[in-house]
Model the fold of this input.
Amino acid sequence: MSKIPSIMRVLILMLLFTMCTPLLWGQAEMIIVYDGEYAINNNFKAVGMQGDSLALFNYQFQGRQYRISRQKVVPVFGSQAPETVFSYDIDPAWGDISIVGGVPKAWYFQFRNGKLYSAILTESKLIVFFTGTSQTDIHVFDRTGISGIGGYSEYGGGSSFIIRDESIGYFSTFQYNPYLCQYYAMDFSTDTLQMFYSGTGLAIFLLNEDYVLLATAFTVNSGSVLVEGTTVIQDLGTNYLGYNVGMIHMIQPFGSYGNQILMSDGLDFRDDSWTLYAYVQNQNLQFMGGGLGGTGRSFVSREDSTFSCIVYAYDYAGTLICNNFKKFYVDAGQIYPDPSFPNLESYSNPWYLAAMGTDYLLAICYGTGTQLSFNLADYERQQISVRDYNISFTTASQTYCLTNSDYVYIVSGSIVSVLHRDMITAVSDELAPVAPIGITVYPNPFSGVCKIAIDGSKNAPVTVSIYNIKGQLTKTLYQGLNPQGYGALQWDGRTDQNQRAAAGVYWIKVDTGTATATRKIVLMH
Done:
């Protein structure tokens, strides 16, 4: 008899457990649970998520040494002390370090694609760094004879220096007498620079997929070009946006099928503004039919050509007339409203919208005072759970929200609020609603000991148990009043019989007598 591969056995067991869980413990609901808040240094210059942890980055020059520091906020363990994660000694033969405002400055410092991308300039070199969780890759380009390199703009989508990914980046140079702008590509596979276009002053905008738009500030004066890699594939000419005067402020991709182009007839949105929607087909920029009914932000796309976003609009008097979550689908270059799940239009005062993996959509709304409402749409169960928490934040423009499939971090000034996605199960439909139980585990997966924290009153009795993927009791970990503090409970991967539990998926179940909650963990050997 042939053996079933181990990975297949694990998948079968996971499926069986998923099917049996509601029968064991009642109706399940996925919610957002508040874990707590932590103090951080608020002088960070870039922020992102590396694994389940929040990473806040800063840099400094110590003489000719470039240093990158990182402060992490880790589930269960909270905020860690800032530490230097990388230092680089700049060769004196490369000349002076470029300065801004009389001090050396990183030319680029942005977190994208799970890594920190940064760059510095000297008189003869351009040095680019990709800093991941454990190492930094270095790329040194010879810029001899290349001067006037433009900088990155933190305001709006257009820039004169931008790194798309670990394969390619772009920058422009500018000079007077004669007036000339040149556009270069940074090839990170060969560490070489290639000048691929020259013309008038154009900002660099990243489009969806692999395209870049070099767009003039005012389309009435000069045209723009569409670039794929280092090849100009379309010259758009003047007035290609269909307006006599149009200044592009920002381009926001939504999925692989479209881009929102934000424009106005002046220097900012205090003037008349409008939006266009475009996509690239057959190496040409095409404009889409339909629209959003306003300006979109916080785009979240799915593979089925649908996307959700927050849509806002003002009338000519400057009064806000629309501010809602909305969902759309794209078909043959046309945008249509999509009434299918999740329809979030009835959830008022939207602030933020983000994907949590592929199975959940998180919509955050303003409440009263510092209260935020966390509305989690579960695509599989076709449910939307709602939980309200008081969160420390100042204003939306000074607050960042970052998510992955399991965690939510809200960064506001010197405070980080941490939340996570968790399953709760009602013991009985007849019970009155109770406060959700939060279970925080770190690390997960684990191979030695995992630390467990349980939200709730310290005077509340709890039973904490470990179940295997078949729903069988593996370990009764704790019975008593809720132990307080991170790491107050630990599981060393052993059973009630003090045997080493097999590697695989397990569930922590917390039972208060009025409600239960579970959290999946993975034991590795």
In short: Confidence is low (pLDDT under 50) at residues 16-25, 267-271, 427-434.
